[in-house]
Amino acid sequence: MDKMPGLGDMAGMLKQLKQMQSDLAKAQKELAKETVTAEAGKGAVKVTVTGDQRVTDVQIDAALVASGDAERLSELIQEAFNIALEDSREMAKKRLGPLASGLGG
User: Fold this and answer.
1) Which of 5, 53, 59, 76 could tie 41 with a disulfide, CB 3.0–4.6 Å?
2) Into how many domains does the chain fold?
3) pLDDT digit string (tens) for 38-87?
4) What value does the CA radius of gyration of the chain take, rounded to a whole number of Å?
5) Distance, CA of 80 to CA of 38 (rounded, Å)
6) CA separation, residue 84 to residues 7, 68, 71, 103 (Å)
7) Which residues pair with residue 59 across a beta bridge?
8) Does the residue 73 lie in any domain?
9) Structural contact between residues 40 and 81, judged by C-beta atoms closer than 8 angstroms
């Protein structure tokens, strides 16, 4: 009879956990390379964000800047950022969700 029953199962579980952690780290690195772009004001403001929530590009139509409407410009920038960040979070959720659920999340 085993003096310590269940240790084999625990070793297998630890191995599986390490593999899942490795898969998660790999997926996170891949997300850092992927981007989403969001627009506001019919394309007057465009914001690009990576899957790990880093802004890589902001484009603002020169006509919007020239209009001198700082309040409208601010609103459009905020809108584009919020859309881009939400899209980025959604992309991360789709990629990492299955891995996180395997970890009990």
Assistant:
1) 76
2) 1
3) 999 999 999 999 999 999 999 999 999 999 999 999 999 999 999 999 99
4) 22
5) 5
6) 47, 25, 20, 28
7) 46
8) yes
9) no
DSSP state of 49: E
Backbone angles phi and psi of 53, in degrees to 5 = 70, 35
Domain harbouring 31, CATH code: 3.30.1310.10
In a domain, 81, yes or no: yes
* pTM across the whole model: 0.73
Contact between residue 23 and residue 103 where contact means Cβ atoms under 8 Å apart: no
More confident site: 68 or 96: 68
Whether the CB-CB separation of 82 and 45 falls below 8 Å is answered with: no
Count of CB atoms situated within 10 Å of the CB of 21 = 12
Q: Is residue 1 part of a domain?
A: no
In one letter, which amino acid is 56?
Answer: T
Q: In angstroms, rounded to a whole number, what is the distance separating the alpha carbons of residues 11 and 75?
A: 54
Length of the chain equals 105
